[in-house]
Design goal:
Layout lengths: L1 H27 L11 H16 L2 E2 L1 H8 L4 E5 L3 H6 E3 L3 E2 L7 H7 L6 E4 L22 H10 L5 E4 L12 E3 L5
Parallel strand pairs: 1-6, 2-4, 2-5, 5-6
Antiparallel strand pairs: 3-7
Length: about 180
């Protein structure tokens, strides 16, 4: 847990450093030219705001399973469709991270109040397809959490443990099984 916290703090420091440099450049004028629909400084500030909030939303597998049994909860799998088809936690709905828009999120998530449970490859120690480990700072949970929050979903919880797809408590299903 200490290593994870240090990694999170280190990442936050990097984001803050980059954001401060970008904000300084944004005030200079021409260096900030680019698409008005891409706002990295705002993303960096939102990332910093979400960091402490997210830390309080990391849950154990037991809590994850308890929460998923509640009526107004969904498990959201944002990995690629191919990975999802190869295997996922039973009951998970799929929306590829790169497809996030207001409209597509609303199609999958019943309301902004819905409890959303997320997980990614880096929650699984197996390190084999479909859950091959990503570099820790690039784990899909991080941008998924930030983006859901940015789209106005705040009832987000993230599996905060390293588990195995073979653990019965994970309820992992493959394309050869039915959920």
């Amino acid at each position: 847990m200490g290593e994870r916290r240090n990694a999170i703090i280190g990442l936050a420091m990097i984001v803050a450093f980059v954001a401060s440099g970008l904000m300084a450049n944004a005030q200079e004028g021409p260096a900030a030219e680019g698409s008005p629909e891409i706002d990295y400084p705002a993303f960096a500030m939102m990332t910093e705001d979400v960091m402490a909030y997210r830390e309080g939303r990391l849950v154990s597998l037991a809590d994850f399973n308890e929460m998923k049994a509640e009526e107004d909860a969904i498990i959201l799998d944002t990995r690629s469709e191919a990975a999802y088809v190869m295997g996922h936690i039973s009951g998970a709905v799929h929306l590829n991270f790169s497809d996030f828009t207001d409209e597509k999120l609303a199609e999958v998530i019943p309301s902004k109040d819905t409890r959303i449970l997320i997980y990614c490859n880096n929650n699984f120690e197996d390190d084999v397809a479909p859950v091959v480990l990503k570099r820790a700072p690039l784990a899909l949970n991080i941008p998924t959490f930030i983006n859901l929050y940015g789209y106005g979903y705040e009832n987000i919880y993230e599996l905060g443990e390293l588990v195995s797809t073979n653990d019965e408590a994970v309820n992992w299903v493959t394309s050869l099984q039915t959920p």
